[in-house]
Amino acid sequence: MSISNAIVIGAGIGGLAAAAALSRRGIAVTLLEKTAKITEVGAGLQISPNGLAVLQALGLEAKLTERAAVRGQAVVLLDYKAGRQVARIDLLRGAADRPYYFVHRADLIDILYDAARRGNVSIEFGAEVVEVSPGSPAQLRLADGSLRRAELIVDASGLHSKTRSLLNCDSVGQFSGQVAWRAVIANDVGHPQEAHVTMGPGRHLVSYPLRGGRLINLVAVEERVAWAPEGWSIADDPANLREAFSSFGGQASDMISAVERCTLWGLHLHPVADVWHKNGVALLGDAAHPTLPFLAQGANLALEDAWVLAKFAARLPVDQALPKYQSTRHARVTRVIKTAAGNAKRYHLSPGFTRSAAHLGLRVASTVVPGTMISAFNWLYLHDVTAAEKA
């Protein structure tokens, strides 16, 4: 017998997508969110074709365009001194049916929230979960002392999930030696519909347009010895960002100079959880597999998780659905996270022969055989967790 009711913890991208996908398959869903309301958190996201496949299957791609999501044309690698192009990866090659989008996180949250409501998901705000207990049925306790039970409890509460610690006895994450500033500025520099990665020694800047091109999302990453806390919402002085990137020229310098408010995020390494489920309780998204931002896959992996979990929950009893969910997802997310961790080294090469040779190789490949640049990502972008049902 398949699962008939579920509780989802957390109204982020993974939690809302899971609630929408589960309810779409006839499962009664309650979504619990500890905050009093959904507020605009974070900044830009890149929805690559693998994540978009899930939004398409949920009937939500048109909502992206209604919210002025920007269709990405390319990823362009630039040198830091004057912004000279090193290589260009064409995102339009072979992607007519599944484009690549740049979208504000708040807009995607709103789209998924509306989808969950239309699916008759019961959404409760101010509902802080303090304890989850696997069992038959699984149970959780709220901060007000009340208990809730369901055949399936999905913890999509993110990086600091208590359930992850319960199932895995994890230690805290290890500081990666890198920090990231996040900011959104007005697009006064004519930034094209491209993701730009401006590469410098020990640091890089990612920029891309949002909301119809009116805004630019910035993520500036620096290698450093000093530890920094993990979290999106820790405010920092823009002067620190400007000092760290004072050697950058061209458009990168103009964009950094325009930053008025920014946050600083310490990037920490977390292993993929060994255990994703136990007796009716499952982890999803960052709760199971936090990733560094260097492949722009955090949101996309959460969307994939949501679809796969819902698929098995609608077909199998909980003691079969959850092992199938983890076994289907584990190898893929491990590969994505390993690849993301390695990207920073390629972006941060110091001046010298190695950097010059690497940039020359990228420039030649981009110019002579441009199709090879995007085809190297086929394993990532062409993966479609909804394909079997489409067929």
UniProtKB/TrEMBL annotation:
InterPro entries: FAD-bd, FAD-dep_Monooxygenase_BioMet, FAD/NAD-bd_sf. SUPFAM superfamilies: FAD-linked reductases, C-terminal domain, FAD/NAD(P)-binding domain. Its cofactor is FAD. This is FAD-binding domain-containing protein. Residues 6-339 form the FAD-binding domain. It comes from marine sediment metagenome. The keyword Disulfide bond does not apply. One of its GO terms (molecular function) is FAD binding. Keywords: FAD, Flavoprotein, Monooxygenase, Oxidoreductase. It holds the Pfam family FAD_binding_3.
